[in-house]
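Mods, move this if it's the wrong board.
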Amino acid sequence: MDDDAPDEAFKELHTGDIGGWGVAQIAAGTGLAVLEAHQQGFTPAVGYELNPWLLRLARFKAWRAGHHEKVSYRREDLWKKKLEAELPEDALVIAGRFPFPDWTPYRVEGEGVHRAWAYNMQAQRQNSLKKNDSHEKPPQQ
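Not the wrong board. Structure tokens:
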């Protein structure tokens, strides 16, 4: 998977049963993957980026492509937010280069710096509930 070809990642994701899922991209950069996600039918398509210059460039590219009202780019630090609480049940989260340390990916693509992790929010919430249940139960003797 090439950094400049996000369409490859979404084509790979479309091979599974993911109909109707939204996409949130962390460190969205210039917004290419978010724009491609929208063009591939993923809604909502949201990109999170801390760099204000990259954020402006992403918004400009979406405007130039005629999709500025259908994609969203936000300047927020998601490590400080509760993704699990804020994203809809049918959301798909894709992390590039670095996985989320406490999340279980449902799919991993690529190698090295071109690796991406896909997380299904519905499955992630179920995993979190199982972890919380196992932590709350007293050890049996």
